[in-house]
């Protein structure tokens, strides 16, 4: 029987601005990636998100991003590998403080947005991120795009890795995600998205925008928690996986 983790980005509200369905979506996922204050989130949001996830017994990971609140961490920045190392260590430490104060522990680290996509293709950047995670805690799992440089970097340094696939994103022939600047980056039809997910888990393949199959490994599926129909989509994905005899569970 196939087994997969179901993860979601949470804690992306900031001050008076509210984003996502954090409390409700926790009923359908097995891991969450909590924003650490650089691309989204703030100390109060981080604390509340940790408390919510621990209350639902959902595994928690750090979601470090570029220091770009206005751009939500989705704009590329020309940072050095040393800078990448520093911001990842810093953000892991911030979330870990809240986890320890609430009696919890961290399961994984998943870079956010532009940092994630840059590291997927840039070997030096991915090695810096993997080193940051390893030096903070070698027991942490590094989440990265399936088949990416980030996964290879994590494996090379000795981390357990989680090869991630996306429920509602389209793919290119090289296994990368279609840029959000392109009109076909997101899959708007829920049934099409679910069919893609099931095929990725069961067959290890996804159909690219160029019409060719791309081989990939699906350890964890990302669903986004900030869309207009995020909650109903999360429920639909979870139920469809179970109906397809795919067990949904966290790594731990």
TrEMBL record:
Positions of transmembrane segments: none
Biological process according to GO: carbohydrate metabolic process
UniProt subunit comment: Forms a complex composed of PxpA, PxpB and PxpC.
Pfam families, per database record: LamB_YcsF (PF03746)
InterPro entries: Glyco_hydro/deAcase_b/a-brl, LamB/YcsF/PxpA-like
UniProt superkingdom: Bacteria
Leading EC class: hydrolase
GO terms for MF: 5-oxoprolinase (ATP-hydrolyzing) activity; ATP binding
EC number: 3.5.2.9
SUPFAM superfamilies: Glycoside hydrolase/deacetylase
Family in the record: Belongs to the LamB/PxpA family.
Function (record text): Catalyzes the cleavage of 5-oxoproline to form L-glutamate coupled to the hydrolysis of ATP to ADP and inorganic phosphate.
Keywords (A to Z) from UniProt: ATP-binding, Hydrolase, Nucleotide-binding
Reactions it catalyzes: 5-oxo-L-proline + ATP + 2 H2O = L-glutamate + ADP + phosphate + H(+)
Protein name per the record: 5-oxoprolinase subunit A
């Amino acid at each position: 029987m196939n087994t997969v983790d179901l993860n979601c980005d949470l804690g992306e509200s900031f001050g008076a601005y509210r984003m996502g369905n954090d409390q409700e979506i926790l009923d359908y996922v097995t891991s969450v990636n909590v924003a650490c204050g650089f691309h989204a989130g703030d100390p109060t949001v981080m604390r509340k998100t940790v408390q919510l996830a621990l209350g639902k017994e959902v595994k928690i990971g750090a979601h470090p991003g570029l220091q770009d609140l206005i751009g939500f961490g989705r704009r590329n920045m020309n940072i050095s590998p040393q800078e990448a190392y520093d911001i990842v260590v810093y953000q892991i430490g911030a979330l870990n403080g809240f986890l320890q104060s609430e009696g919890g522990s961290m399961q994984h680290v998943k870079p956010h947005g532009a940092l994630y996509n840059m590291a997927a293709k840039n070997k030096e950047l991915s090695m810096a991120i993997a080193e940051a995670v390893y030096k903070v805690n070698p027991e942490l799992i590094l989440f990265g795009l399936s088949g990416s440089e980030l996964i290879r970097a994590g494996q090379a340094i000795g981390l357990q890795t989680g090869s991630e696939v996306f429920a509602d994103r389209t793919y290119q022939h090289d296994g990368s995600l279609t840029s959000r600047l392109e009109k076909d980056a997101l899959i708007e039809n829920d049934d099409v998205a679910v069919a893609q997910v099931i095929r990725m888990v069961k067959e290890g393949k996804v159909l690219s925008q160029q019409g060719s199959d791309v081989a990939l490994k699906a350890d964890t599926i990302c669903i986004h928690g900030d869309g207009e129909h995020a909650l109903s989509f999360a429920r639909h994905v979870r139920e469809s996986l179970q109906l397809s005899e795919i067990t949904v569970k966290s790594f731990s």
